[in-house]
């Protein structure tokens, strides 16, 4: 589970960033990224522009500024948060960006987004999952490690797998990376997603209704079944 009280002040993050443990983590992660980029010929970054993906993306770009960055969007994406603002910030840096539009209703077809992202002639991808997020991911990462080959031959690469929420926050603040508004409103422990996940429909919709009633009402117009879940 994620730490529930991770500080976000600039002063705290600057102090935390001076710790040897944090500095060594950043160094080890860069070394890991450098090694894995030598093992794949045509990788991409699967980026959701959440906190973990943003840290991963910034670090990978330091090694390969031209790597393809793929983002899976949905009909509701721009209503859920300030994705346009965050993505525009990254695009202004000149990233090699591709948006994969996933059509569908409010309740998504399982694995549809994953299949859409993986389509193409790629032999590996970077993804910003962390062991701290859930028991399932912790077990999976311990079993398969941060770099492993999937049955289809592609390499799944997880640079920030063992970072804590405090590590992620510190990197974001000290490197001036943009954040989605949900983190501002609900803290860095909040779950963000570009599409409404079937396993957290009520949570996602309730959060949006509290944070942005205008966008919530627009979502109701897009998907009338919203009222069934909140």
Could you describe the 3D structure shown?
This protein is an alpha/beta fold. The protein has one domain: Rossmann fold, CATH 3.40.50. Helix content is 48%, strand content 11%. It contains 12 helices and 6 strands. The chain has helices at residues 10-16, 20-37, 51-63, 77-80, 83-92, 112-118, 135-144, 165-175, 181-186, 201-211, 213-222, 226-229; strands spanning 43-46, 68-73, 96-101, 124-127, 147-149, 155-157. Strands 3-2-1-4-6-5 form a 6-stranded mixed beta sheet, sandwiched between helices. Helix 1 packs across helix 8 (165-175). It is globular. Residues 1-7 have low confidence and may be disordered.
Write the CATH architecture name: 3-Layer(aba) Sandwich
CATH evolutionary superfamily? HUPs
What is the residue-averaged pLDDT? 92
What about the largest sheet? 6 strands, mixed
- Proportion of residues in β-strands: 5-15%
As residue ranges, the low-confidence spans are 1-7
Structural class: alpha/beta
Helix share of residues? Answer: 40-55%
Number of strands: 6
Please report the distance between the alpha carbons of the first and last residues.
Answer: 25 Å
Identify the overall geometry: globular
Q: Whole-number radius of gyration?
A: 18 Å
What number of domains? 1
Q: Tell me the CATH topology.
A: Rossmann fold
User: How do the SSEs run, as a string of H and E?
Assistant: HHEHEHHEHEHEEHHHHH
Side-by-side strand order of the widest sheet: 3-2-1-4-6-5
Helices, by number, come to: 12
So what's the CATH class?
Alpha Beta
List the topology elements.
Layout: H1 10-16, H2 20-37, E1 43-46, H3 51-63, E2 68-73, H4 77-80, H5 83-92, E3 96-101, H6 112-118, E4 124-127, H7 135-144, E5 147-149, E6 155-157, H8 165-175, H9 181-186, H10 201-211, H11 213-222, H12 226-229
């Amino acid at each position: 589970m994620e730490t529930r009280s991770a500080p976000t002040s600039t002063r705290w993050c600057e102090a935390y960033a001076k710790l040897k443990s944090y500095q060594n983590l950043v160094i080890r992660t860069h070394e890991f990224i450098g090694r894995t980029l030598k093992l794949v010929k045509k990788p991409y970054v699967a980026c959701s522009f959440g906190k973990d993906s943003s840290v991963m993306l910034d670090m990978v770009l330091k090694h390969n500024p031209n790597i393809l960055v793929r983002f899976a969007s949905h009909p509701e994406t721009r209503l859920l948060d300030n994705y346009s603002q965050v993505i525009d910030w990254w695009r202004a840096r000149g990233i090699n960006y591709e948006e994969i539009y996933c059509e569908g209703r409010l309740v998504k077809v399982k694995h549809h987004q994953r299949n859409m992202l993986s389509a193409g002639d790629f032999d590996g991808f970077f993804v910003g999952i962390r062991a701290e997020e859930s028991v399932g991911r912790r077990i999976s990462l311990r079993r398969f490690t941060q770099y492993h080959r999937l049955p289809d031959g592609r390499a799944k690469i997880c640079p920030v797998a063992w970072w804590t929420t405090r590590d992620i926050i510190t990197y974001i603040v000290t490197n001036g990376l943009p954040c989605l508004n949900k983190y501002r409103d609900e803290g860095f422990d909040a779950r963000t997603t570009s599409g409404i996940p079937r396993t957290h429909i009520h949570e996602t919709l309730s959060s949006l209704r509290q944070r942005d009633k205008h966008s919530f009402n627009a979502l109701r117009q897009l998907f009338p079944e919203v009222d069934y879940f909140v």
